[in-house]
Amino acid sequence: MRHMNSKILWTTITTGLLVLLLTGCATLRPGFEPPRVQLVNIEVEDAKMFETVFRVQLRVFNTNDEPMHIKGGNSILELNGKNFAQGISDADITIPAYGTEIVPMTLYSSVVGLVRSLLSLPKNEKLSYELRGRLRTEGGVMLPSSIPFTSDGELSLETLLEG
Q: What is the pTM of this model?
């Protein structure tokens, strides 16, 4: 009986490791290039006492030879190294092979102190930004189901406030 239990345990462990190995290989397609993402536009959509809603547009570049189906995503926006806003997108967009599309994202900021400090800066002040997050795809054999991205650069306070 003990020999039978150890054989079942060994078979279960071996099968589990094989499934993990095959799943890992299936999500790592050779030659797959993660998409490049650039911040295209940011504008204030709504401002309330404790929350500001921003509409962000991301340009996503698919440099692969197969279409990429984006089902949504999430991101965090930092300004001058401080967490400023975070958000999500339920975009359902297919980016053609060697193509590009705009992916909209809604960001929410409830950091009242940071907004106050931004308003006190001169309008010509440059702000460094970093937008990082993950794009959700259909996944499967050809693509991972979650692809990290980052975009950074500078924008003016005037651009941020006027949209």
A: 0.71
- The closest alpha carbon to 129, from 87, 91, 160, belongs to 160
- Tokens representing 22? 């095959």
Q: How confident is the model at residue 140 (pLDDT cuts 50, 70, 90)?
A: low
Residues 6+ apart with CB under 8 A from 115: 52, 109
For residue 126, the cross-strand partners are 156
Query: Cα angle at 85 between 83 and 87, to 5 degrees?
Result: 130
**Distance in angstroms (rounded) separating the CA atoms of residues 85 and 52:** 9
What are the helix (H) ranges across the chain? 2-27, 112-119, 157-162
Q: Which residues 6+ apart lie within 8 Å of 159 measured at CB?
A: 42
Instruction: Identify the helix (H) or strand (E) that includes residue 31.
Output: none
- What is the C-alpha separation between 104 and 113, in angstroms, rounded? 27
Handedness of CA 131, 134, 138, 141 (dihedral sign): positive
